[in-house]
Amino acid sequence: MKLSHKKTNFGITVSTKEVVLHKPHVNYYLYLEDIVSITPFETKGATQVRFVNKQNTQQEVVHADDGTQHYNVFVKKATIHNRSGLFTLGTMRFVIPIHYELMKTIGQLGKWDVALDM
Fold it and tell me: Does residue 77 surpass a pLDDT of 90?
């Protein structure tokens, strides 16, 4: 583990190989090699952001009102770990709040060019 950021109902852990999104009762594993892009997401006036997996019609509602910059994270595949076990999901889009230092670390570990405007 390189860096971790935890809130009440959400957390992100960054290691040398993956980004893990922690939610109560479920974790999403996003391997750095499977991340296609990370781009800024505007939350102007939005109070909720939905995670949607169209293949399985699952969705999760997350409140997005803490002032942290949110990002669209597109992945070729993700692994979900919940009470039922581990499952591999196909192409997904996550809209998640990522703290500035976490974003820098993800960029460095993924060996990407990072342009952060703060």
Answer: yes
